[in-house]
Description:
It is a multi-pass membrane protein. Its main location: membrane. One of its GO terms (cellular component) is plasma membrane. Helix content is 82%, strand content 0%. The protein is mostly helical. The longest helix has 32 residues, at 2-33.
Amino acid sequence: xxxxxIQSFKNIVSTYLGFFIGAINTLFLYTEFLTDDYYGMVGxxxxxxxxxxxxxxxxxxxxLVKFYSTFKTRVALNSFLTLMLVLPFCIILPLICIVxxxxxxxxxxxxSKNEIIKGYLWHTFIIAxxxxxxxxxxxxxxxQMQTVFGNFMKEVFHRxxxxxxxxxxxxxxxxxxxxMAGLVVIYVLRMLVMSVYAFSIKxxxxxxxxxSGLNSILKYSALIIVAGLIATQLLDIDKVMMGQYLNPMRxxxxxxxxxxxxxxxxxxxxxxxxLLSPMSxxxxxxxxxxxxxxxxxxxxxSLFVVGGLIFLLIILxxxxxxxxxxxxxxxxxYVVLLISVSKLYDSLLGxxxxxxxxxxxxxFVLIIGVVIIAIMVLLNIVLIPMCGINGAxxxxxxxxxxxxxxxxxxxxxxxxxxxxxxxxxxxxxxxxTSALLFYFxxxxxxxxxxxxxxxxxxxxxxxxxxxxxxxxxxxxRVIKKLIKLK
Length: 486
């Protein structure tokens, strides 16, 4: 866990920096500088781009990670890497033609409830292409075990640029239309910077040679498209469907804020996954199941401890946080609670996804994923008109719970690996006790002071218990190092 711990720590720092900047943008600047409808439009546009991004990339970012370590000669590796760069064009170019010739039909369908959507279809499409190739270039760096800069670009760069755009809009330096176009430029620029960095680590040698195992690579890539669509739709399809079922667009703005707050729990998992995936792929290719199991258990415990603390800080301060943002946005309270629980469950699974999608059993998991997405879509169709944004949250919660539980069982059934230990139960008990003790107790000061005092108290008590009872060796080791630094 040495390499994982060091780079994961740096990734967590940059990811939280990104989320801190994103919090300022999402909770304050977007809500103040844009109308609720246009804020909803931005959320819809980015969500739709993320939904179609896996198709644009042709799954190359996952394929590159899975198969990279299997190529042992320079010529074979260069041929493989060339394939990774070229294949996405096989999807992107036909899609460009489809959008160009069918623009009015597609735009009319998507804007049936909200006319504002019609003017930003090309914006969405270009962002999706930029997202796709960014992930390919990031994977290029990942397989060289270099994730820190890529994670910074993924989490911080576009948020800083968006903040600058928002201030430019507020001070009337740019118009609203220029702001929307500027968002597209940000994602394209991020992709280009990532490409330069990735190629500085390993310069591509364009080689159109025979790639061994091509059929397996193409089959995996095709199926991983489905995996990517499953993952992104679990995160973003609810926003896209709200654009079809709810009017006005401000409902997406309220939902977007609630989702952003909950997603903070996933930051450590996202940071650690950058290295868990290539390491799990290597252990699987080498059939080193002892190391794989150790990585599985340690990652689960570490993520549960860190994600659990963030979960407590969110749900125990959420009422005060909504007082700071805008009381209108407090309609997303139950969304925060439900999605926070689902994100904590994601963290609890540790390297589960890395094991599954780098193994030979990914096909079955994809089939299950398709079924789960179908269930989620049906639940959204029923629950969004009935319960609004809370209906979308309920649908997402049910889908995530079912999907994660099946994946947990599948890894146990096929690999005889289980991430939970007695320490997992103890951490869960600590979280439940802390939530019951602190949820209904508030200081009687300004919300900022209340959040600060309560967060300090919870963090100190939680950390003491984790360290005192050594519930996670890796977390205890980090705490010891921090104590020595002082």
